[in-house]
Amino acid sequence: MRRLLAWLDDRSGLITWLRHALEHPVPPRTGWWYVFGSATFIAFVLQVVTGIALATAYVPSSGQAYDSLRFITEQALLGRFLRGMHYFGASAMVLLIGIHVSRTYWMAAYKFPRELSWFSGAVLLLLTLALAFTGQLLRWDQNAVWSVIVGAAQAGRMPVVGGELARFLLAGDTIGGATLSRFFAFHVFFIPALVFGLVGLHLMLVLRHGISERPRAGKPVDPATYRQEYQEMLQREGVPFWPDAAWRDVVFGAATVAAVVLLAILVGPPALGSPPDPSILEAYPRPDWYLLWYFAVLAMAPEHLESIIIILGPLLFGAFLLLVPFFNRGERSVRRRPWAALLVVFIWTTIAAFWYAGERAEWSPDFSAKPLPASALGNATPEDTEGARLFHSKGGPDLTLVGGRMTQDQIVARITNGSANMPAYTRILRPDEVQTLAKFLAGRR
Ligand code: HEM
To answer: What gap in Å lies between CA 414 and CA 317, rounded to an integer?
Structure first.
């Protein structure tokens, strides 16, 4: 065995390289905040392994995708477990990458000479979110399909490129078999290939520059002297990566895998909704939890601000990711960069708050809501009461005063034909129901 390894090393240099990577000195006292990058990597590897296994039974055609997933979940050997692993693995990857970005920003690890580590990471963040989004459509149930339609509708609002972008996402003007093929190709080939390449670059950069030392207030980064000081510090007090620092990566990585396995067994994969039917307008898309907060933002935004938020939000976030490493010198300690701490806390709190609002689904109809109280209806006729019930069950918006704005005929036309931000209800309401509803609404002044 030893001779075989010596031969391998002589011809490839791999073992010497690995030994160097494992034993290279790293700054002392880095601590637990540095484990999230390696844990993100482990989550990605889990996704690749479970994804390949799922792909052996998944049929990426619009006629069969849903059934093949039901087969995987209900009949295939270990299928339910694998779907659970893939779902919770994705959740872990999104969560861990979020913490990793926050940690590197919080400790200003993007400053000289690690600007490229940040850039490559920023692209990895976008790719990870793209993997999460494209994966959801592959479930090809009502929820998944509608989430993508909403996503494409949002993309469509971008100025200049919006229409093209939406058509590109859907692989046509509407969702269909071609959309599924496109998302499948992106989810299993294109994006993972990019992630592989970029993770390679990212880790190579970590080895090249060494991991950043814990920031100290009053010790700013000066590109003219940083490298020399870093090397001197490593010689003085550096510790070998393995085992002194890497044991934490191993422990946290193992805990991550164990958590994903446990959740896959105990909770299982997300239930499949009903098969997709784009003609059903009552679908209230609920994306997976890590995208839910963004849907809540969109759904709760006042109508006149919606487009601004859709365009400005991602634009500002993208500009932030790109611009951060240009501030590549100066203090790293968060005590001297209080705005950085505020920003991280603000972003996490906003996401948590909108996620909570989305979870409670205030913005989509709550079917278990109690019927409107009699006091809301005043001297209602039985027909009025029926109109109110219908309106309530179809999840109408706040139209308390609509009767003052529109006549009954105008309301009938609006309900049947829809408008810019409202679907046409012709197919899900009978004509007599439309009349009953319109009469009820015309009375709301
Ligand atoms: C698939 C995604 C990613 C993987 C697998 C990954 C992996 C890693 C690993 C293993 C390290 C070593 C130290 C540590 O764990 O903290 C690291 C460092 C770093 N990463 Fe990532 N990363 C990813 C995404 C990102 C993102 C999204 C950003 C920022 C936008 C980022 C920025 C950085 C920076 C600046 C460092 C240097 C940290 C230091 O020297 O203290 N990474 N990454």
So the answer is: 37
The atom of ligand 1 lying closest to the CA of 122 is 30
Quick: pLDDT tens for 287-315: 889 988 988 887 788 878 877 888 888 88
State which of 104, 207, 317 you would mutate to test the pocket of ligand 1, scoring each by most atoms of that ligand within 8 A of its C-beta: 104
pLDDT exceeds cutoff 70 at 367: no
Ligand 1 atom nearest to 195, measured from its CA: 1
Whether residue 365 contacts residue 284, with contact meaning beta carbons closer than 8 Å, is answered with yes
pLDDT at 368: 38
What whole-number distance in Å separates Cα of residue 313 and Cα of residue 223? 33
- The CB of 72 under 6 Å from ligand 1? The reply is no
Q: Give the DSSP per-residue string, 226-275.
A: HHHHHHHHHHHH-EEIIIIIHHHHHHHHHHHHHHHHHHHHHT-SPPP-SP
Residue 367 backbone phi and psi in degrees, to 5:
-70, -20
For tokens 């920031």, name the residue: 215
Task: Give the burial string for 159-189 (b: 16+ CB within 10 Å, else e).
Answer: eeebeebbeebbbeeebeeebbebbbebbbe
Cβ of 117 closer than 6 Å to ligand 1, yes or no, is yes
User: Is the dihedral angle over the CA atoms 281, 282, 283, 289 positive or is it negative?
Assistant: positive
Confidence (pLDDT) at 374: 58
Q: Tell me the per-residue pLDDT of 315-355, one tens digit each, with 9 for 90 and over.
A: 899 999 999 999 999 999 999 999 999 999 999 999 999 99
d(CA 381, CA 105): 62
According to DSSP H, which parts of 26-161 are helical?
Answer: 36-55, 65-74, 79-106, 115-138, 142-155
Cβ neighbours around 307 below 10 Å, total: 15
Collapsed DSSP state (helix, strand, coil) of residue 419: strand
Measured between alpha carbons, how far is 422 from 118 in angstroms, rounded to an integer? 42
Q: Tokens 């105990």 map to which residue?
A: 266
Mutate which of 24, 35, 117, 119 for ligand 1 pocket (most atoms within 8 A of beta carbon): 117
d(CA 214, CA 118): 17
